[in-house]
Amino acid sequence: MGKRKKEKKNEWLDWLKALLIAFGLAFIVRMFFFAPIVVDGPSMLPTLHDGDQMIVNKFAYHLHEPERFDVVVFHASSKKDFIKRVIGLPGEHVEVIDNVLYINGEEMNEPFLTDQKDSLKSYQILTNDFSLEDLPGGYDVIPEDHVLVLGDNRGNSTDSRVLGVVSTDQIVGKTDLIYWPFNRMQTIGK
C-alpha cells in the first residue's frame, strides 16, 4: 500500500512540474515574443476592422528595424496602445499633396490604399495635405530612432499627424496576422 501511495504522489508531482513548466514557458513567450491584441476603432479600415484579434510579434524589431508599411503596435500613452502603419523612416522627409505620398520628394505607391483611392471622386480627399514640418515637433526630417505612422483610414485616425513621430522605444512589435474572427483570418501584407 505504501509503494502505491508513493507512486501516486510522484505522478502528481510530475504533473505539477509539467504544468509549472508549461505556464512558465507560456509566460515567457507572451512576455517577450508574441502577444494578442484586439483592434479598437476604425483607424485602420479597410485593412483592419474594429474587433479583429491579432498576434503581435514582439521579437521582430530586436532582429531588424521597422520597415516602411509595416503594421505596428506602439504605446501611444501609458494606458493605450495604437495600431498604425509605418510610413516614414529615420532621416526621411514625408509629405502628402493631393492624396499622393512623397518620401524625400519621390512619389510613393501605397498599394493598401488603392481601392480607397480608386473609389474617390475627383473632389474628394483621402489624406489631407501635410508636411513633416507641420506635425508636432516641427522636424524637417524624421529623427534617428523614430518613425512616422499613419492609419489606413486617413480621415479618421489619430496618428503622427496628431501625435508627432513615434520613438522606436514605444513600439511593442509588428503585427500581420488576424486570427479572429475566423472569417477574417489572414496575414496582411504591405
From TrEMBL:
Cite the active-site annotation: 43, 84
**GO cellular component terms, A-Z:** plasma membrane
* TM helices/strands, residue ranges: 12-39
Query: What organism is this sequence from?
Result: Virgibacillus salarius
Enumerate the spans annotated as Peptidase S26 domain: 12-180
Query: Family, per the entry?
Result: Belongs to the peptidase S26 family.
Coiled-coil ranges per UniProt: none
Question: Which reaction is this enzyme known to catalyze?
Answer: Cleavage of hydrophobic, N-terminal signal or leader sequences from secreted and periplasmic proteins
Q: Which GO terms describe its molecular function?
A: serine-type endopeptidase activity; signal peptidase activity
An example GO biological process term is: signal peptide processing
Its chief place of residence is: membrane
Give the enzyme's EC designation: 3.4.21.89
Keyword terms? Hydrolase, Membrane, Protease, Transmembrane, Transmembrane helix
Q: How does the record say this protein sits in the membrane? A: Single-pass type II membrane protein
Give the subcellular location. Cell membrane; Membrane
Its top-level enzyme class, in one word, is hydrolase
Designated name of the protein:
Signal peptidase I
Task: List the PROSITE patterns hit by this protein, alphabetically.
Answer: SPASE_I_2, SPASE_I_3
Q: Which gene encodes it?
A: lepB
